[in-house]
Structures are given as structure tokens and as C-alpha cells.
Amino acid sequence: MYPTLPDRCAPLPYLRKITFDRQFTGISPSMAGNGTRLTGLKVITPYVVVPDDRAFAVLGTTFHGRMAEEGVVYNVLSEEAMSDEAAKGTPDLLEKDEHAKSGYILTDYKSSGSFKVCKWLGIYVKKTDVPILGTDGNPVLLKSGKNKGKVKTKQHREIIEDPVRIDKLDLELQVNRYRIFFEKNGFPINKMRAFCVPRDGGTHIAKSRGLLSNTRFVPVSRFEDSFVLDYYAKLSAEIVEFFDTGYARLCNDWENWEGRRCAFYCEVKNECKEMCIKHNEKWPGDGKVPEPEEEGEENAREAD
Q1: pTM across the whole model
Q2: Helix and strand numbers, DSSP H then E, in the chain
Q3: CATH class assigned to 12-122+162-278
Q4: Contact by Cβ (8 Å): 183, 96
Q5: 49-75 pLDDT, tens per residue?
Q6: Which of 50, 58, 192, 205 has the highest Cβ tally under 10 A?
Q7: Could you read off the pLDDT of 192-228 as tens digits, one per residue?
Q8: Bridge partners (DSSP) listed for residue 128
Q9: Which residues, 6+ apart, have CB-to-CB distance to 286 below 8 Å?
Q10: Domain boundaries in the chain?
Q11: Is residue 83 within 8 Å of residue 89, measured between CB atoms?
Q12: What does the DSSP 8-state code read for residue 53?
């Protein structure tokens, strides 16, 4: 008699899909915003993944694959592997700029959650209480309860896109690195953007954050080449040092989302904790860490 085994938590194709990671061949544009320790530990140590946590990554991979198929039909550069002396990457889409005599538009596909898309666009909802007016034009007063005699109000919601709140440095570093690939190969870029299909688009939570449409473009600013190249060169040097010494710096507040990524989403946090103990460091996930701002806040490894 064979022992009775429990049912798998998911179909085998799904489990095979979520355990696949690209072989590390050096720093790539999509690593913007990832700390050296996170990147390095995922290369050299075996780690456990929770199947439920990678569901959105599978959807993101499928989304990218389907869009790439259309690129073949419409004669645009889609999922074209690019490289130079410093890095390798696979931009999502390059197409001619139809509103200019020459030049191209570079687009990156994103299937992020509404929380991140709102951060990229600076969207938030301003809530204010406004008085309810009667037919005579005067404010309606409460007639009972502890607030009797006070003006009855209703909540007014205003969706605002505030440039000051925009937070998209990781996205802009990634797309600018793709731009540098193309421009080195003779493709001048007129415009850069991300095309976002929020994975929770159309839901109550997305609308409550101010995101009313199921697709949005996010404009990407042009950075100085030196700024972009210096950022990735520093990451590359840190990774090389990690492989040589076995030590990498802690992820900073930007990379670890003020500790939330460490506490709730990092797949190599146990290995990171061991390194912290060895080097007498305080693990960023300990102590008072802000609660996640979204259920499953960007814990998906999106196929960038």
C-alpha cells in the first residue's frame, strides 16, 4: 500500500510556473528598487515560496506574453532582448511615433495593483464633509441623538492627481535604462510611458483609491544617462562585492518600503535575518513597522 498523500495546493503546471526564476546573468533594468541583499540572496540561497503569494505574478507573466504575441502581428519591436557592455534587458514595446516625422515611443507593460498605479500617478481621494441643504436652501439639522441640533452632513469625494505625490522612481529608472539600450542602437526615443492594466481594476477598492478606469498610461520622464547608468553601476558593483565577500548592505527605506517589504513580503527574510545576526545589525522588519497599505501590497513578482 502506498501512503495516502494530501492533495496538492494547486495544479502542477501552476506550481512549476511559480517556482521558475530567470537565471541571474547580471543586473537588469527591472531590478530598480530592489536592494542588493534581496537580489543577492535570491541568487545564492534556496528559499521557500508560498503558492498563494505568487498568483498575481503568474497573471502578469501571462499578460506580458499575450501582448508580445500581438507585437509580431503589428510589426513592432516587442520583447526584444537588448544588451550593452553593462547590462541586459528585455523592453516590452517599441513603436514608431505616429505624431512625429521620426523617432519612437517606448512602452512598458504593468499589471500592478491599483495602490501602486495611484502612487505612480499621484492620485488620491480628498474627503470633505459638506452640509446637506433642505428644499429651502438652508442646512438640515439633526433632530435626535447626541448631535441633535447640529448640521447634517454628507461626505464629498474629490479625486486629485497631485504631482507632489507621484512616486515612480523605480519605474522611471527601469524604462530609462531600456531607452539607453535603444538609443545606443540608433532608435531615438521621443516618448516613454508605462501602460498599466491594474489587476484589481473596476473593483470597489480601486475606485475608492480614485482609480476609475481599467487601463492607464503613466508618463515616464527622461533622466540624464549618467544618473541612470550610475545607479545600475552601483547595484552591479554591490552584487559583485556580495558574491566575493558573502555580505551585502541592508536594503534602505526606499527599497524595503520602510520595513513593510521585510516584515510581510520578502521571500528571503529568514536568510536576511541570519546575516543581520552575524553582522550585529537590526533587521528592518523588527519593531514598529507600518501596516500594509494594500492587501497583498505589491508582493507579486511582476514579469517586468
Answers
A1: 0.84
A2: 10, 9
A3: alpha beta
A4: no
A5: 777 777 777 777 777 777 776 766 566
A6: 192
A7: 999 999 998 899 999 999 999 999 999 999 999 999 9
A8: 156
A9: none
A10: 12-122+162-278
A11: yes
A12: G
